[in-house]
Amino acid sequence: MTTLSEHAIAILRENDRGSYTVPTKGLYPFQWNWDSCLTALGQRHFDEARAWTEIETLFAHQWLCGMVPHIVFHQMDDGYFPGPTVWATGRPVPTSGITQPPVAGFALKRLFDRATDRPAAEAQARALLPKVAAWHRWFFATRDPGGEGLVAILHPWESGRDNSVDWDAPFARVPTDGIAPYTRRDTQHANPEHRPTKAQYDRYLWLVEHFRALDWDTARMHDASPFQVIDPGFNAILIRSCAELADLADALGETALAAENRALAAKGLAAMESLWSPEHGQYLCRDRAAGALIDSPSVGGLLAAFCAIPPARAEAITAKIEAHGTRFRVASHPPQSAEFDAKRYWRGPVWLVVNYMIADGLAHAGQEAAAARITASSLDLIRESGFAEYYDPITGEPLGGGRFTWTAAMVLEFLA
Ligand code: 9WN
C-alpha cells in the first residue's frame, strides 16, 4: 500500500518541470511565487538539491527593482488566463507584474537549518540572501510610502487569497469599464461554482490593464491604485521572513543585512497592533485608500500568528479557530458569517498552506495543543479526501485542482 508520504512525493515529481514545479497540471501550467517557496519545503525531504533549485529558479526572474513576480511563464500554454500577452511586462522570460506573499525568507532559513549537505546549503543561502533582502527592501520602499511599517497589496492576486471576503468592500471602488473582452480558462478546468465570480474577474483585469498602462513602473503603482489593502496575513509573512532572514544573515556573517532585516521586522511587528480588532478578537485588513479597518474576520487575520505576535493575541486566535466549529480546520472564512461559502475558493474552504503557517506560528507562541490539532486535522483531511487544491471545511469534499503540489509539500512537512 502506498503511504501518504510516498503519494505526496509522487505528486511533487509528477508536477516537476525540471527547474520549477507547476502547482497542478492543466489549471496552473506555470511557476507561482509562494507555491514554489512552500514546495521547496516538501522537496527537501527527498531531494535537497532540487529544493534549492526551485527557489533559485524563482529568483532568476526577479526584477531589477527587487520585485519577485507572482507568475513566471516559462513555457507558453494557453490553458491559463491571463497569459503573458495580457500582462505584457516586457521581460525576456515573460512574468506577471505583481507579486505574492514573500514566504521566501522563511523557506530559505528552514532549508538552510535542516540541510544535510552543509557546504551546498551555505553556498545556496549566500547566493540567495541578498536577493531576498532586495525583495524585502522593495516592499517597504514601494508599498509603504508613508513609512508606517506595513505594506499594501495592490491586487487581490498578490494576497494569494484571491476572492476573500476581505476584498469585497475595496473592490467596490475598482471600475470595470473599458476592459478588453476575455475568455476565462480556469472555469474549464475547475467547477465555476468553486471559483471567483465574473464580477471579480472583471476587476482583476481592470487592475492589470491599469498597471500595464503605467508600464509596470512599480514605483508608481501604489499611489495610482484604487485598491490598496494592508493584509495582516501578508504582512505577517513578510515580517517573519525579515526576522528569519536576519538570523540567516547573522549565521553567514552578513551583519549589515541582519541589522536591516531585524529593524524591518521589529517595526512591522509593532505596527501590526494597529490591525487588531477587539470586537472580532482577531486582526483585520485595513483599507489604506479609505483609511479604515475592513469588517471581515477572515483567515488573513488568523494567519497573523505566523509572525511573533504577543502571546495573548495568539491565545485569542486559537479561540477564534475553535469558535469556527467546523469538522476540518482552518476555514478561510467563519461559517457563522453571512458571506461564508463552504466551496467557493477563499470564502470558506480550508487550504493546507495556510494551516501550515498558522500551526507553525501558534506552536512558536506557546499554543502547541492548538497547533497539533491543526496538523492532525490537516492529515485527516488528506487521508479522507486526497491531495486537492482546497476543501470544504464542513464535509471535507476536495475542491478545485487535483494532485496539487503545495498540498503534497505541506503533507511532507506535517509528517516530519
Ligand atoms: C492567481 C497557484 C495560485 C496560488 C493562489 C491561488 C490561485 C491564481 C488563480 O492559484 O491563484 O494567482 O488563477 O486563481 O489563489 O494562492 O498561488 O496555486
- SS element count, helices: 17
What does the largest sheet look like? 3 strands, antiparallel
Mean of all residue-level pLDDT scores: 98
Q: What proportion strand? A: under 5%
The total of beta strands comes to 9
Bound molecules: (2R)-2-(alpha-D-glucopyranosyloxy)-3-hydroxypropanoic acid
CATH class: Mainly Alpha
CATH topology: Glycosyltransferase
Number of domains: 1
Report Rg. 20 Å
SSE order, as H and E? HEHHEHHHHHHHHEHHEEEEHHHEEH
Low-confidence runs of at least 5 consecutive residues: none
Strand order of the largest sheet: 3-6-7
- For the record, the CATH architecture stands as Alpha/alpha barrel
Outline type:
globular
Q: Which quaternary structure do these chains form?
A: single chain
Task: Give the class from helix and strand content and strand pairing.
Answer: mainly alpha
Kindly list the characteristics that best describe this protein.
9 strands; Glycosyltransferase; two-stranded antiparallel ribbon; 17 helices; globular; three-stranded antiparallel sheet; 416 residues; mainly alpha; binds (2R)-2-(alpha-D-glucopyranosyloxy)-3-hydroxypropanoic acid
